[in-house]
Structures are given as structure tokens and as C-alpha cells.
Amino acid sequence: MADLTAVVVAAVGVAGTMGAPLLTQWSRRRELAEEAERAERQRGQDRDERDLQRKRDLYAALNSTARAYRTAAYDYVLAVKHGENADGSALDAARAPTGISTPKPRWCYRGAL
């Protein structure tokens, strides 16, 4: 009986010694996988925040350009209504203030989608 107990204790000791590195390796792989998943999730959130900020900037540019164009158009209509000489250059300036050939509001809106 003492011999059997000694053999069992020795077997458990050897199994523990051999199994500890495997258990440690498994635990480390799991930890690294969770860390990589967390990092990927953070990168996705950062990317989503950058995209949202880009859209906000584009919509702000769209709204301010559309407001400037609407004001210029209103001034042009009033000038025509009062019989003043209105050549529409203010509309052209409001339409493409940065030299873009297409109307700026459409250009901004296209980028926001």
C-alpha cells in the first residue's frame, strides 16, 4: 500500500510538473487573444470616431456654404426686384469660393455620404 501511495504521489508530481508549462502557455495565449481583441475593438472605435468627426466637419462646411449661397441668392433676388443692376458675381463667388468647378454645397454633400 505504501508503494502504491508513493507511485501515485510521484505520478501526480510528474503530471503537475509537466502540465504546468502547458497550462501557463494556454493561459498566456488566451490573454494575448483577449488583448488583441480589445486592441482591435479600440481601433474600430477610433476609426468610427474619426469618420464621425469627418462627417461633422463636412456637414458644417455644407451648411455654412449653403447658408452663404442662400444669402447671396436672396440679395440677388432683392437687387433684381428693386431694379438694380445685378450681375450674379456674388452668386458665383458663393457657389465656388475655393475655385471648385461644381457648386460647393454638392461637393460637400458628396463627401459627407
List the quaternary state of the chains: single chain
Number of helices: 3
- Any low-confidence stretches, pLDDT <50, length ≥5? 99-107
When the domains are counted, the total is 1
Radius of gyration (CA) equals: 35 Å
Strand content: under 5%
Number of strand elements = 0
Helix content: over 70%
Shape: rod-shaped
Distance between the termini: 80 Å
Task: Assign the structural class, choosing from mainly alpha, mainly beta, alpha/beta, alpha+beta, or little secondary structure.
Answer: mainly alpha
SSE order, one letter for each helix or strand: HHH
Q: Main sheet?
A: none
Please render the helix and strand layout as text.
Blueprint: H1 2-81, H2 89-95, H3 104-112
Helix pairs in contact: 1-2, 1-3
Describe this structure in words.
This protein is an all-alpha fold. It has one domain (2-112). It contains three helices and no strands. It has helices at residues 2-81, 89-95, 104-112. Helix 1 runs antiparallel to helix 2 (89-95) and helix 1 (2-81) runs antiparallel to helix 3. Residues 34-55 are annotated as: Disordered.
In brief, what are we looking at here?
The protein is mostly helical.
Key descriptive features of the protein:
113 residues
